[in-house]
Amino acid sequence: VLGAPLSPDRTAQPPDPKNPLRAGAVRSNGQRNPNYTSTYVFPNDFPALLERVPEPPAPDHPLFQATQAKGTCRVMCFHPDSAMTIPLMSVKEILAVIDEWINQLHELGRRYTWVQIFENKGAIMGCSNPHPHCQIWASSFLPNEPRIKDRYTSYNTRRPIGAVCSDPA
According to the UniProt record, where is the region Disordered (predicted)? Predict the structure, then answer.
């Protein structure tokens, strides 16, 4: 789970009646959130990944390859109170968040190669909604950084310890 610190100038403010993440709010797609009392997960209204994507055209040259990038994006609200943050939540409320993260990882991990849960808090991270929430992205491909680390780990497990840095003499 990835996160970013909240800007230090945040002060408690009354809930915004136009906040699309609050319980009972109508989101941009016309869907109404239920009056949730704990965690709530729903499909992202503006997904970066789609489950149905067209096949890419055949390449003109073998150097240029393209493949489908399928996936799904979800939003998970941690708490119905827009002014709440994880450090202020009770242990029971935090455990509900963790349990739902685990549920999402298991569910999406059965269908997708990569599942990433991340929270971007504050305007500096590009998040304008202070409601306590995170993004859950699952994709049919392994992103570059994890793919490189995965290959390196795989390589090292097939070699004796220290083989990469050992003196050949």
Answer: 1-37
